[in-house]
Amino acid sequence: MADERWKVKKPDGSIYGPVSTETLQNWIKEKRVLPEDFISREGKDEWKFARLVPLFQTFFPRSEQEKTEVTEKVCCPYCRNALPPEATFCISCGTDLKTGKKVGGVVIARESSWLKRHLGSIVLGLLIVSSGLGAVLFSRYIHPANDIWVIASRIIISVGETICLYFIVRFFVVLAFVKKTPTTKIADIRQEGFFEVCGKVLCGAPEVVYGLKCVYYDYVHYTRRRELFHSPGTHYRYARDVQERKWVPFSVEDDTGEIGVNPAGAFFEPKVLNRGGSIIGEERDTLRGITVGDEVYILGEVINYNGTLQFEKRRSILPLVVSSKPESRLTIFLILRILLLISIGVLLPIAVNYLFAYIRK
């Protein structure tokens, strides 16, 4: 044991050593190595809190008051984010504290199965296929129709109504959870369950878009094109040719504590980051997103992963909502979307029948 040599990593990322066990013990006595510093044996890349290494525990404070002070000072050696004493990874920069490697972005973002990631799209696709097939069978056996236009109109109406119903149910489920779930302080979340919190976004590794540090963004690029069937130079439209959505795991902080969020599969309600869009000659782009420092509303399931609680969409039936709008405004937006979809569902048959009647003339 006396022949072992040690390295020390400070919160700012600087590394000292390797030094002998005796030298390191002297550094601890001289307060040059603190409980929240990390140490590792030479030749290994397994960093641990100095106060958690059994060989040096006797050199650190033992009184309850001093323990509390030490716990409050524990932080990540890479981004200086505050951490619980038993943490094995940093929820701010996504670093595994044992290996020093980045893990899944900001929070431990476990790779979910392909089925879980695309379950919503699969269900919607099956509903569309089923509704279209149902319309064909209806026109074939229940209410026979030989006119191809009648069959086509029935298929379009059936598929359109199915899509509207799918999103009405989806938004209604989110609205129901928003209304029935009370807001909870982060410090009061001590076990797994379904919670609602409000707080400020923190992230050690955000996506930088137009100089903005985003934890989620939706970027759309448009190119101006001339409309067909119009005289040159008079009618133009902007056609979408590029769309990119991306998120990174992050954490949320209120006045009582901090909790991680793995937003895979979340329902996002971002804010407009370049209002009106940026227009450059024949091109235009728009950007919506959620940035570091924004006040956000989080609703979802909290799970325990490696001893750390974090928001994560584990079951498809329960929503995970990440919104830059407060609960009151989010509720209004959801209600308006449901009403809009109901209106579309009511007007769609009328519009389709009118359109096909016009085409057949």
Report on the structure:
The strands form three sheets. Strands 6, 7, 8, 12, 13 and 14 form a six-stranded antiparallel sheet that branches. A five-stranded mixed barrel has the order 5-9-10-16-15. It is built from six helices and 17 strands. By secondary structure, it is of the alpha+beta class. The model is unreliable at 63-73 and 103-111 (pLDDT under 50). It has helices at residues 21-29, 64-73, 114-117, 119-142, 148-180, 327-360, and strands spanning 5-9, 15-20, 38-41, 48-49, 193-202, 207-209, 212-226, 236-247, 250-253, 258-262, 267-269, 271-272, 278-280, 283-291, 295-305, 308-312, 321-323.
Summarize the structure.
The chain is of the alpha+beta class and 361 residues long. It has six helices and 17 strands. A hairpin with a 2-residue loop joins strand 6 (207-209) and strand 7.
Key terms:
361 residues, alpha+beta, OB fold (Dihydrolipoamide Acetyltransferase, E2P), six-stranded antiparallel β-sheet, 32% helix, 28% strand, elongated
The beta-strand count equals: 17
Structural class by sheet pairing and helices: alpha+beta
Number of domains: 3
Main sheet overview: 6 strands, antiparallel
User: Helical content, roughly?
Assistant: 25-40%
- Name the CATH class of the largest domain: Mainly Beta
Instruction: List SSEs in N-to-C order.
Output: EEHEEHHHHEEEEEEEEEEEEEH
Question: How much of the residues is beta strand, in percent?
Answer: 25-35%
Mean of the pLDDT scores?
77
The low-confidence parts are 63-73, 103-111
Which of globular, elongated, flat, extended, rod-shaped describes the shape? elongated
What is the helix tally?
A: 6
C-alpha-based Rg, rounded: 28 Å
CATH fold name of the largest domain: OB fold (Dihydrolipoamide Acetyltransferase, E2P)
